[in-house]
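Batch job 17 of 40 flagged for manual review because the log was empty.
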Amino acid sequence: MRLDLFLKASRLVTRRSIAKQLCDAGRIKVNDLAARASKEIKVCDTIELRRGKHLTVVRVAILPPSKQVRRDEAADLFEIVEDTRLTDDILS
C-alpha cells in the first residue's frame, strides 16, 4: 500500500493531498529515510511524521484490505512508538 493512502486510511493525516505535501517537504520518513508519497509500506515499517514542533513515530501493525477503513478500526493499523513535542534545541 502506498504511504499516502496508508496515512489517510489510518487517520494519521486527514487528507491524501496533505500527506503528499508533508512528503514533498521532507517531513515524513519511513525507516529513517525521507519518503515520497508513492513509497510502498509494509508491515513493521516505522513511519516518522513531523508536523511543526510535534513528532509522531508509529510502527505499521497491519495493512488495510482496502483504501477505506472504519474509524474504529483505523487505530488498529499502527502502534505508537513515540509521540513528543520537540523543543527548539532539537529542531536545529
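Reviewer: the log was empty due to a logging misconfiguration, but the result itself is present. Strands lie at 28-30, 33-34, 46-51, 54-60, 78-85. Unflagging and moving on to job 18.
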